[in-house]
Amino acid sequence: MLNRLRYRAKLRTRRWLRENPKWLKKLRHFRCFSGDPESVSRGFAIGFFFGLTPTVGVQTFLVLSSCLMLRGNFPIAFMATWVSNPLTLVPLYWLFENIGSLFISGSILSTNTAAAWPMLQFVTSGTLKMLLGSLFIATPMSLLSYFVVYRLAKLNLIRNKTVT
User: Fold this and answer.
1) What is the rounded CA–CA span in Å between residue 54 and residue 6?
2) How far apart are CA 13 and CA 36, in angstroms?
3) Contact criterion met (CB below 8 Å) for 105 and 73
4) What is the distance between the alpha carbons of residues 75 and 33, in angstroms, rounded to a whole number?
5) For tag attachment on the chain, is the N or C end more exposed, with fewer CB atoms within 10 Å?
6) Alpha-carbon distance 43 to 68, whole Å?
7) Shortest CA distance to 54 belongs to which of 114, 107, 97, 99?
8) pLDDT tens digits along 19-47
9) Higher pLDDT, residue 132 or 121
10) pTM for this one?
11) Average pLDDT along the chain
12) pLDDT higher for 115 or 56?
């Protein structure tokens, strides 16, 4: 069942790309579906980075634009963002908040603003702590994943075929 659905999606994608050669040319230019080790490892690192940041609502847009700019493999990047899913979201955000609290302590806003809008102070400090904590985890993990995936792709342990 799943193989049949995957096969149909592959056929539809190939047909659409044949009917729209300009898009195919652009996608090839940006190497969005390239199976070479550099593109695959770049795509995985991009997806892993944004998967480990609190950007759940805009992850796909950020991943797609980053893959276009850095010439990474988009399907691999999209799958790598699944590191943050409904089961892992709460533990990841808790970890981000605790790591961010090590570097940011106290009130971020002035005391007058915090007194007038205590909820604003709570939200801004929590968001900034979570964002900073996620960057301390996402950056080294995505760099490490780049080198691991690159090595695995060079050894032909990861095979990715191009879509055409």
Assistant:
1) 30
2) 20
3) no
4) 7
5) N
6) 10
7) 97
8) 888 877 777 777 777 778 888 899 999 99
9) 132
10) 0.72
11) 80
12) 56
Residue with tokens 């850095």: 70
Residue 156 to residue 151: CA distance in whole angstroms = 9
Q: What is the pLDDT of residue 116?
A: 55
Task: Give dist(CA 35, CA 154) in Å, integer.
Answer: 11
d(CA 128, CA 96): 10
Q: Give Cα separations from 10 to 4, 97, 163 (angstroms).
A: 10, 41, 8
Nearest to 125 by CA among 144, 95, 99, 105: 105
What per-residue confidence (pLDDT) applies to 147?
Answer: 95
CA 115 to chain centre: 37
Query: Roughly what angle, to the nearest 10 degrees, separates helices 59-70 and 37-51?
Result: 150
